[in-house]
Design a protein that fits this description.
- The complex is a heterotrimer of chains A (about 210), B (about 200) and C (about 240).
- Chain A has about 210 residues and is an alpha+beta fold.
- Chain A has four helices and twelve strands.
- Chain A has helices at about 60-80, 85-95, 145-155, 160-175, and strands at about 10-15, 20-25, 30, 35, 45, 50-55, 105-115, 120-125, 130-135, 135-140, 185-190, 195-200.
- In chain A, the strands form three sheets. Chain A has a five-stranded antiparallel beta sheet, with helices on one face. In chain A, strands 5-6-7-8-9 form a five-stranded antiparallel beta sheet, with helices on one face.
- In chain A, helix 3 packs antiparallel against helix 4 (about 160-175).
- The longest helix of chain A is centred in the N-terminal third of the chain and has 22 residues, at about 60-80.
- Chain B is α+β, with helices and mostly antiparallel strands.
- Chain B contains four helices and twelve strands; from the N terminus they run E-E-E-E-E-E-H-H-E-E-E-E-H-H-E-E.
- In chain B, helix 3 packs across helix 4 (about 155-170).
- The longest helix of chain B is centred in the first third of the chain and has 19 residues, at about 50-70.
- The two termini of chain B are about 20 Å apart.
- Chain C has about 240 residues and is of the alpha+beta class.
- Chain C has four helices and twelve strands.
- In chain C, the strands form three sheets. Chain C has a five-stranded antiparallel beta sheet with strand order 10-1-2-11-12. A five-stranded antiparallel beta sheet of chain C has the order 5-6-7-8-9, covered by helices on one side. In chain C, strands 3-4 form a two-stranded antiparallel ribbon.
- In chain C, helix 3 packs antiparallel against helix 4 (about 195-215).
- Chain C is globular and about 95 Å long.
- The chains are: A alpha+beta (about 210), B alpha+beta (about 200), C alpha+beta (about 240).
- Chains in contact: A-B, A-C.
Chain lengths: ~210, ~200, ~240
């Protein structure tokens, strides 16, 4: 258990719905078996309708969230517009690959709507930036096996926003309840073309 | 096996650090202060590899003070201080010889009138907590504090809670940690609390 | 006097003796799942058997009717699984000889399997064992074990390669975990109820087709054994073969 990507624990998940996306994560931060914080969000917003989820080694989650905040600020100043989800995905990919032989121990996911077309976009990465484009859902973190099982069975394409919220919540909740390193609270962001809703879920506290 | 413990209350943050300095089976000193004042309202408490600890804490102390000298006596906020320390540790982690130092930073922000406690380990994992500890002490202290901690406690109540934790640590810890130094950081600055 | 040396190897001195070690275990993949209903129990398993990246066969049943309306599976290292089930069958046969054909109830079978497993505490059967049947009241029963015999009666259990994928799904769909009555603001949990056989079969097929999609050790076919008061019956559904 000295595997860097499972010292702190934590999971994240993104799903595509009908003209909407949802992205969710748990709130636990631990040190091996000891829970330290139940308020450690792993999702970061970029622009109006784009989110980045970072699971894995907490120090790298913090370092990368700051790195991307910095890079995004420069991008917005230069381009005078907010970043597109697909652009952020390529930024994440190239940033991670820079550290090809000494990687950040993270499992990032990106989810958002295109600013012009409102087309949903989600993708995931390995720790050195290989992009996994998916049409349906992306999972990440210490409960990824459980999340794959939940998503593969609960998910269906073309869900309306409220149905997507229920699906992603149930998928996350039941997955993290079977992982000792994840849980301790959860949040879900639901992104539609004119609104972002944040919901904090009540979860088991063990 | 060093103990460093922090409790945030409504109007300040309490830090307790064990007095024993040990090496192998020997207690070398029973009056070791494992804290450094970074500025008027920021206190760092540390544990880890002996040698690294003091070197790192004093390096941080010097840089925080240098900042105030350069920037017209502006004092770095607790949030900024914690970020700076985290960044130093995170950078050090991927160097040839990383600092093996875990710290707690107690601070009081005069701009927002809020107390804070930042938990940072040698990896650069940083969290803002209501209460926290490093090492084995965390297992005993956290479970006690989970039960008894309340929001909006006064400093006196916080010190009462600390007494409870120390009593538990004295009974459960396998070696004598020679008592603790207790310090409080609040709007008036950093002060020691005697009698522990 | 020597003029030519054909090989120097004979003159080499080996300071470290060459060690050979036999690994008595392997992993044959596959996944299994048991669910108990009000008056029935099902035990299901995929029929793929693998070793490493090779598929040995696409049809090797691993859920068995072991007699007395008890169905059993031992998933993990296939040779140990077969050995365990053979031993249990044999002991059940002798039990009948010794007790005038008396039917072994599932509770006793469960306790006996614990002893079979714990008997090899220091060279374990490398399997996740599940048995299913009906209890003394005719209610569905599922018992599951760890490799050394620690066991528990449950409503449902997934075992084997894709257990981590299926188990949270079962928590959610069989025990209604994290489900609340609409409009109660999360105050009232959804009431537990027994699932009908048709509902259970649907869940099992969904669970396996999902596991097949994401796990390389699961696929090819799904064989289901169902115990009711009428006895044991078998069903087979194809799964994806990729």
């Amino acid at each position: 258990m000295s595997d860097p990507s499972s010292i702190n624990g934590g999971s994240a998940l993104a799903m595509v719905g009908k003209e909407c996306i949802a992205i969710a994560c748990d709130l636990r931060l631990g040190n091996q078996s000891l829970g330290l914080s139940n308020n450690f969000e792993k999702l970061f917003q970029f622009g109006d309708k784009t989110f980045l989820g970072l699971t894995g080694l907490a120090t790298d989650v913090l370092t990368l969230s700051e790195t991307f905040r910095f890079k995004n600020n420069l991008y917005e100043l230069r381009e005078e517009r907010s970043i597109e989800p697909s652009t952020l995905a390529n930024l994440v990919s190239s940033t991670l690959y820079e550290k090809r032989f000494g990687p950040y121990f993270v499992g990032p996911i990106v989810a958002g709507l295109n600013s012009k077309t409102n087309e949903p976009f989600i993708c995931g990465f390995d720790s050195i930036g290989c992009i996994d484009f998916a049409k349906d859902f992306i999972v990440s973190g210490t409960a990824s096996d459980q999340l794959y099982g939940m998503c593969e069975s609960l998910y269906e394409p073309g869900l309306e926003p409220e149905d997507l919220f229920e699906t992603i919540s149930q998928a996350l909740l039941n997955a993290v309840d079977r992982d000792a390193l994840s849980g301790w609270g959860a949040v879900v962001y639901l992104v539609t073309k004119d609104k972002v809703t944040k919901r904090v879920l009540r979860t088991r506290q063990d | 096996m060093d103990i460093i413990l922090g409790i945030k209350v409504e109007d300040g943050t309490i830090i307790a650090t064990s007095k024993a300095a040990t090496r192998g089976i020997s207690v070398l000193k029973d009056s070791d202060d494992k804290t450094r004042a970074l500025n008027a309202r920021n206190l760092i408490a540390y544990t880890g590899e002996s040698g690294d600890t003091v070197q790192f804490a004093e390096f941080i102390q010097a840089n925080i003070q240098l900042y105030s000298m350069r920037e017209n006596d502006i004092e770095l906020s607790p949030k900024a201080t914690a970020s700076f320390v985290r960044n130093q540790l995170a950078t050090s982690l991927r160097s040839r010889k990383p600092y093996q130092v875990n710290v707690l930073i107690a601070g009081y922000d005069t701009k927002t009138d809020t107390a804070s406690l930042n938990w940072i380990d040698y990896l650069g994992t940083q969290v803002e907590l209501p209460y926290g500890a490093h090492g084995y002490a965390a297992f005993y202290a956290n479970s006690l504090l989970d039960k008894h901690y309340r929001k909006n406690m006064k400093i006196e109540e916080g010190l009462g809670l600390l007494k409870l934790c120390l009593k538990e640590l004295e009974t459960r810890m396998p070696i004598d940690f020679k008592g603790v130094y207790v310090k409080v950081v609040d709007k008036d600055g950093i002060r020691s609390i005697e009698g522990y | 006097m020597r003029t030519t040396v054909a090989s120097e190897y004979s003159a080499e001195v080996h300071h470290v003796p060459i060690e050979h070690r036999f690994n008595p275990y392997s992993d044959n993949g596959g996944t299994v799942l048991g669910i108990a209903g009000e008056d029935f129990a099902v035990l299901a398993g995929d029929t793929r058997q693998v070793e490493g990246y090779s598929i040995h066969t696409r049809y090797q049943p691993k859920v068995f009717d072991v007699g007395d309306d008890i169905i059993m599976t031992a998933n993990g290292f296939a040779a140990d699984g077969v050995a365990l089930i053979d031993r249990f069958r044999n002991q059940l046969k002798w039990y009948k000889f010794d007790h005038g054909g008396k039917k072994l109830n599932i509770k006793s079978a469960a306790r006996y399997i614990q002893h079979l497993l714990y008997g090899k505490r220091f060279f374990p059967y490398y399997v996740h064992t599940i048995i299913a049947g009906l209890d003394e009241d005719g209610k569905g029963a599922v018992y599951s074990y760890d490799p050394v015999g620690s066991y528990e009666r449950e409503q449902c259990r997934a075992g084997g390669a894709a257990a981590s994928l299926i188990m949270p799904f079962l928590d959610n769909q069989v025990n209604f975990k994290n489900q609340y009555e609409p409009g109660t603001d999360g105050k009232k949990k959804k009431d537990l109820r027994y699932l009908k056989l048709e509902e259970v079969l649907e869940l099992v097929r969904d669970a396996f087709s999902s596991a097949t999609e994401r796990h390389i050790y699961v696929g090819d076919g799904l064989e289901l054994l169902i115990v009711t008061k009428e006895g044991v019956r078998t069903e087979y559904y194809p799964l994806k073969r990729d």
